[in-house]
UniProtKB/TrEMBL annotation:
<dbReference type="InterPro" id="IPR001236">
    <property type="entry name" value="Lactate/malate_DH_N"/>
</dbReference>
<dbReference type="InterPro" id="IPR015955">
    <property type="entry name" value="Lactate_DH/Glyco_Ohase_4_C"/>
</dbReference>
<dbReference type="Pfam" id="PF02866">
    <property type="entry name" value="Ldh_1_C"/>
</dbReference>
<dbReference type="InterPro" id="IPR001252">
    <property type="entry name" value="Malate_DH_AS"/>
</dbReference>
<keyword id="KW-0560">Oxidoreductase</keyword>
<dbReference type="InterPro" id="IPR011274">
    <property type="entry name" value="Malate_DH_NAD-dep_euk"/>
</dbReference>
<feature type="domain" description="Lactate/malate dehydrogenase C-terminal">
    <location>
        <begin position="156"/>
        <end position="325"/>
    </location>
</feature>
<dbReference type="Pfam" id="PF00056">
    <property type="entry name" value="Ldh_1_N"/>
</dbReference>
<dbReference type="InterPro" id="IPR010945">
    <property type="entry name" value="Malate_DH_type2"/>
</dbReference>
<protein>
    <recommendedName>
        <fullName>Malate dehydrogenase</fullName>
        <ecNumber>1.1.1.37</ecNumber>
    </recommendedName>
</protein>
<dbReference type="InterPro" id="IPR001557">
    <property type="entry name" value="L-lactate/malate_DH"/>
</dbReference>
<dbReference type="InterPro" id="IPR036291">
    <property type="entry name" value="NAD(P)-bd_dom_sf"/>
</dbReference>
<comment type="similarity">
    <text>Belongs to the LDH/MDH superfamily. MDH type 2 family.</text>
</comment>
<feature type="domain" description="Lactate/malate dehydrogenase N-terminal">
    <location>
        <begin position="5"/>
        <end position="152"/>
    </location>
</feature>
<keyword id="KW-0816">Tricarboxylic acid cycle</keyword>
<keyword id="KW-0520">NAD</keyword>
<dbReference type="InterPro" id="IPR022383">
    <property type="entry name" value="Lactate/malate_DH_C"/>
</dbReference>
């Protein structure tokens, strides 16, 4: 039998946490033959609710779940973890300035970075979900210098999956037959959902999405804004932000990272830029990646047309500004 893997979920008493922990305990994140020990962290005001989630995990009698640590102590939460899914953060409240929200999250991610660096298992893989996801991940990287930068990522897989969903609805094809969309840049409304290399499996072989949709106007405007604004549309409909889709996409992100992407398929991940596609290095930016043996690599050599170039640069610009804002909160 396999040794259990320890998975940390911060903000585990929140809405995404509540959707995510049962998925992990069912083997959706790491595989149906992989036992897990869940580490759940939240803050003291949520301690009672967190304990309620732990009670439900016991009640659900998940065969793969070999233990549960539910705590408000960051060190206890981080100790020995192999995978860390960072969902906890400070939400933007009405009337708050961007800088105030950033400042709260910078201090959370700075201290959690140190705890992970000191106490997590060697080679721990980190996924930041909490917003501003890219910049929280960057702060985590800066304050955990001994964790390899390749191990620190942020979630744009939800945006990627939303793009697949929109194409599948538009063409009335199965979502599993659509692949290789790309989310470039920030997990924000400046992200660029790119279909220029996306394909659909059809009875007549693989076809480019651009050929099948044949409505460039829709692809170049409405499709892009629908994906960019989908988070806001969910809040409007549900009065709460996306939770089941965020949790499911977080599982997709870690599963593909650990177990590998299928041959010929790439996915989108926010990773530390190495300057590929002339994206400034030193930002956590969403790129198309393939994964093998537990490591991601950026897909190279894709053609970038003029419209795309502008959009890649615009979202990089926003990330540089967020980075400056985050640094101004540190001093
Ligand atoms: P929520 O407010 O329901 O839950 C957040 C939880 O984090 C709360 O239980 C809170 O007590 C906890 N928390 C706050 N500070 C903490 C700290 N220092 N340490 C540990 N836990 C802490 O929010 P929800 O809906 O679960 O969303 C969580 C985050 O995920 C938000 O920042 C949201 O914007 C983000 N998000 C990101 C998405 C993405 O695709 N990257 C998609 C959807 C949401």
């Amino acid at each position: 039998a396999k040794e259990p893997v320890r998975v940390l979920v911060t903000g585990a008493a929140g809405q995404i946490g509540y959707a995510l922990v049962p998925m992990i305990a069912r083997g959706i994140m790491l595989g149906a033959d992989q036992p897990v020990i869940l580490h759940m962290l939240d803050i003291p005001p949520a301690a009672e609710a967190l304990n309620g989630v732990k009670m439900e995990l016991v009640d659900a009698a998940f065969p793969l779940l070999k233990g549960v640590v539910a705590t408000t102590d960051v060190v206890e939460a981080c100790t020995g973890v192999n995978v860390a899914v960072m969902v906890g953060g400070f939400p933007r409240k009405e009337g708050m300035e961007r800088k105030d929200v950033m400042s709260k999250n910078v201090s959370i991610y700075k201290s959690q970075a140190s705890a992970l660096e000191k106490h997590a298992a060697a080679n721990c893989k980190v996924l930041v979900v909490a917003n501003p996801a890219n910049t929280n991940a960057l702060i985590l990287k800066e304050f955990a210098p001994s964790i390899p930068e390749k191990n620190i990522t942020c979630l744009t897989r939800l945006d990627h999956n939303r793009a697949l969903g929109q194409i599948s609805e538009r063409l009335n094809v199965q979502v599993s037959d659509v692949k290789n969309v790309i989310i470039w840049g920030n997990h924000s409304s400046t992200q660029y959902p790119d279909v220029n290399h996306a394909t659909v499996r059809t009875p007549a072989g693989e076809k480019p999405v651009r050929e099948l949709v044949a409505d460039d106007k829709w692809l170049n405007s409405e499709f892009i804004t629908t994906v960019q604004q989908r988070g806001a549309a969910i809040i409007k409909a549900r009065k709460f932000s996306s939770a089941l889709s965020a949790a499911s996409s977080a599982c997709d992100h870690i599963r593909d990272w650990v177990l590998g992407t299928p041959e010929g398929t790439w996915v989108s991940m926010g990773v530390y830029s190495d300057g590929s596609y002339n994206v400034p290095s030193g930002l956590i930016y969403s790129f198309p990646v393939t994964c093998k043996n537990g490591e991601w690599s950026i897909v190279q050599g894709l053609s970038i047309d003029e419209l795309s170039r502008k959009k890649l640069d615009l979202t990089a610009q926003e990330l540089s500004e967020e980075k400056d804002l985050a640094y101004s909160c540190l001093s």
